[in-house]
Design brief:
- The structure is a single chain.
- The chain has helices at about 1-5, 5-10, 35-45, 55-60, 80-90, 115-120, 135, 145-160, 165-170, 180-200, 240-260, 275-280, 285-295, 305-310, 335-345, 345-355, 410-415, 450-460; strands at about 20-30, 60-70, 100-110, 125-130, 270-275, 320-325, 360-365, 370-380, 380-390, 395-400.
- By secondary structure, the chain is of the alpha/beta class.
- The protein folds into 2 domains: about 10-130 and about 260-370 and about 440-460, Rossmann fold (3-Layer(aba) Sandwich), CATH 3.40.50; about 145-255, no CATH class.
- The chain has a 7-stranded mixed beta sheet, sandwiched between helices. A 3-stranded antiparallel beta sheet has the order 8-9-10, with no helix packed on it.
- Strand 9 and strand 10 (about 395-400) form a beta hairpin.
- Helix 3 (about 35-45) crosses helix 5 (about 80-90) and helix 13 runs parallel beside helix 16.
- The chain starts with a helix and ends with a helix.
- Keywords: Hydrolase.
- Pfam families: DUF463.
- This is Conserved protein with nucleoside triphosphate hydrolase domain protein.
- One of its GO terms (molecular function) is hydrolase activity.
- InterPro entries: YcjX-like.
């Protein structure tokens, strides 16, 4: 029938020609839960009993869903089956986190819809999920920074972090204008990488270059053997000149190809953010997260420079969801507060994205629910707690992380001021293990608001 009408006429009439492809990027900084999010999303699209807020699932428009080979043969496949087994085994465990780019194609066969359904017949929507480490996304800001500008910022952050003491001590003994010595630069680079690893473990987000955290097959290469040095006019053949050359090579040979080959092809994006982890780490970690996210999401404003404009061309990310993960670590009465804090924390980042025409939203989710809620009496008041299996030791425990404020600025103002700790509260965090599951036929993994997230991200294309 399409041949009778002609593809051009069908398109003019709004009749889809060929299959629909949605490329969904999934990223977030370390421990935000990217692997679990993708596994749960796929599980709940294959078995849609827990997806009432995804309209196409609730009204039966999705006839069936199935996995099939991905379109990019050179990109590793996301190991869905292995990760699903980890979460649903008799003794469930958290799967290994994202360490490289991977991809998965989930195809949805849709019922005909509208008056032209008899003409078009069944539709097939391919959801191509692209998983990539958030640590690499941090490097986006380097595309617009010279070595001198990056060094100034990196050293400014390091001087405010106890984790950088060893690196800064070694740096103080070095003259950037001294003749280049491979051993000296390698030692300084290793100390810088060690500091970045410690800073990330302490809850900081802005730890560039990202490949210093996840080097992959570049480990030990000259392109990862540099460090920030005090600004100056380094003479040719000096330590500083070689560090600058290697930084430039990192941007040109590592950062640009990644964004060209992967990032620029995405049309829907979810950014997973461990807001609770940052709050637990303290005001400085929260401020660091705010700055990092604002810097990262400049990517969604095409045209800022010639390179980013050439990446996007006429294509741009249409929707971006900022999702605060681990909502199951809070009683549901605090979820609205977590969402409000996330919106305020990411205000600058969301404004940058909206400037490019992308629709944005923020919500709190748990891709896999690991706890149950309880109300307990404590000192005459009822506290909403969550109970789950502790990752360390395996015992059951009830947990109350603290009462998040109604007004987000009570947190964010302290963060912007560079305070050492919260003024009137301490916020705890607990590491829960995945709970043993007994899934009914037709049900995916248990979650909180995953269906709402899916509706925002892809509902309009279904």
């Amino acid at each position: 029938m399409a041949a009778f009408f002609g593809d051009g006429l069908l398109r003019n009439l709004g009749i889809p020609v060929g299959d629909t492809v949605i490329r969904l990027g999934v990223t977030g900084l370390s421990r935000a839960g990217k692997t679990v999010f993708i596994t749960s999303l796929v599980s709940n699209l294959l078995d849609r009993g827990r997806m009432p807020q995804l309209v196409a699932a609730a009204n039966g428009d999705i006839r069936t869903a199935y996995l099939q080979p991905q379109p990019d043969d050179t990109v590793p496949r996301f190991a869905y089956e292995d990760h699903y087994h980890a979460l649903t085994s008799a003794e469930p465990y958290w799967p290994e986190g994202t360490r490289r780019t991977s991809q998965l194609r989930l195809s949805l066969r849709m019922n005909p819809r509208g008056m032209l359904g008899s003409v078009t017949g069944e539709r097939v929507v391919h959801l191509d999920i692209i998983d990539y480490p958030g640590e690499w996304l941090l490097d986006l800001g380097l595309l617009e920074k010279t070595y001198s500008a990056w060094s100034t910022q990196a050293l400014g952050r390091a001087r405010g972090r106890a984790e950088a003491e060893g690196f800064l001590a070694a740096l103080s003994l070095i003259d950037p204008a001294q003749p280049f010595d491979e051993g000296v630069l390698r030692d300084l680079s290793q100390r810088f990488a060690t500091y970045l690893q410690a800073a990330r473990a302490a809850g900081y987000s802005d730890c560039t270059p990202g490949r210093f955290l996840l080097p992959g097959d570049l480990e030990g290469s000259p392109v990862l053997t540099f460090a920030p040095l005090p600004a100056g006019d380094y003479p040719r053949g000096s330590l500083g000149a070689e560090a600058r050359r290697r930084y430039d090579a990192y941007v040109a040979q590592v950062v640009k190809p990644f964004f060209r080959d992967h990032f620029a092809k995405i049309d829907r994006q979810i950014v997973l953010v461990d807001v609770l982890g940052a709050i637990h780490a303290g005001p400085r970690a929260v401020e660091d997260l705010r700055v990092a996210m604002a810097d990262i999401l400049g990517a969604f404003r095409p045209g800022r420079n010639a390179f980013l404009a050439s990446l996007f061309g006429a294509r741009r990310v249409e929707k971006i969801l900022f999702a605060a993960t681990k909502a199951d670590h809070l009683h549901h009465r605090q979820h609205a507060r977590l969402t409000a804090i996330t919106k305020s924390l990411l205000r600058e980042a969301r404004d940058r994205a909206a400037f490019s025409g992308a629709a944005t939203a923020a919500m709190s989710i748990a891709a896999l629910r690991t706890t149950v809620e309880e109300d307990v009496m404590h000192e005459g008041s009822i506290l909403g707690v969550v109970r789950g299996k502790l990752l360390d030791g395996g015992r059951q425990a009830a947990f109350y992380p603290g009462d998040l404020p109604d007004e987000p600025q009570r947190l964010l103002s302290r963060a912007r001021e560079g305070a050492e700790k919260w003024l009137d509260a301490d916020y705890g965090i607990m590491n829960f293990a995945p709970a043993a599951l007994s899934l009914r036929a037709g049900d995916g993994l248990p979650h909180i608001r995953l269906d709402k997230a899916a509706q925002f991200l892809i509902g309009d294309r279904l």
